[in-house]
């Protein structure tokens, strides 16, 4: 078992179109303070470039957030103290996709073994 197979992470993939920049920025401006309190850390973001293959309609924006655990993600999503935060995201975006994934920490990809990859590929 590689070291990475012991470092499981929980990821949230966010893809969306911006429809109200002001509302989305109000949401996003609070994230650096709020998300870490719930175990969240943004690891990547980007703007749509090209639809290479696949049947999913393109979205303008992608964010990938790493969470300490599924429980940490759920606490961020469900905390009533953040009831005013999530509507800013919801009302500032359209065609929102929010999917979660289990994964390995890839900060050192040399530690990834074939067993780690097979564990992701098997049902």
Number of strands: 4
Strand line-up in the sheet with most strands: 2-3-1-4
> Which stretches are poorly predicted, pLDDT < 50 over at least 5 residues?
1-5
Given the C-alpha coordinates, what overall shape results? globular
Mean pLDDT equals 90
Task: Supply database-style keywords.
alpha+beta, 4 helices, 31% strand, 4-stranded antiparallel beta sheet, disordered N terminus, 123 residues, globular
Task: Set out the fold topology.
Blueprint: E1 8-18, H1 21-34, E2 40-47, E3 61-67, H2 70-78, H3 86-92, E4 93-104, H4 114-121
Antiparallel strand pairs: 1-3, 1-4, 2-3
Helix pairs in contact: 1-3
What does this structure look like?
There is one protein chain. The protein has four helices and four strands. 31% of the residues lie in helices and 31% in strands. Strands 2-3-1-4 form a four-stranded antiparallel beta sheet. The two termini are 19 Å apart. α1 (21-34) packs antiparallel against α3 (86-92). With 123 residues, it is of the alpha+beta class. It has helices at 21-34, 70-78, 86-92, 114-121; strands at 8-18, 40-47, 61-67, 93-104.
Task: Put the structure in a nutshell.
The chain has 123 residues and is of the alpha+beta class. It has helices at residues 21-34, 70-78, 86-92, 114-121, and strands at 8-18, 40-47, 61-67, 93-104.
């Amino acid at each position: 078992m590689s070291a990475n197979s012991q470092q499981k992470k929980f990821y949230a993939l966010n893809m969306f179109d911006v429809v109200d920049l002001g509302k989305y920025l109000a949401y996003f401006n609070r994230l650096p303070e709020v998300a870490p309190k719930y175990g969240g850390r943004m690891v990547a973001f980007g703007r749509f470039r090209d639809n290479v293959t696949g049947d999913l309609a393109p979205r303008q924006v992608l964010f990938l957030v790493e969470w300490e655990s599924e429980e940490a993600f759920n606490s961020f999503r469900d905390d009533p103290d953040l009831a005013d935060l999530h509507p800013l995201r919801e009302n500032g975006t359209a065609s929102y996709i929010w999917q979660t994934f289990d994964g390995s920490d890839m900060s050192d990809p040399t530690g990834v073994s074939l067993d780690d990859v097979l564990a992701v590929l098997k049902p």
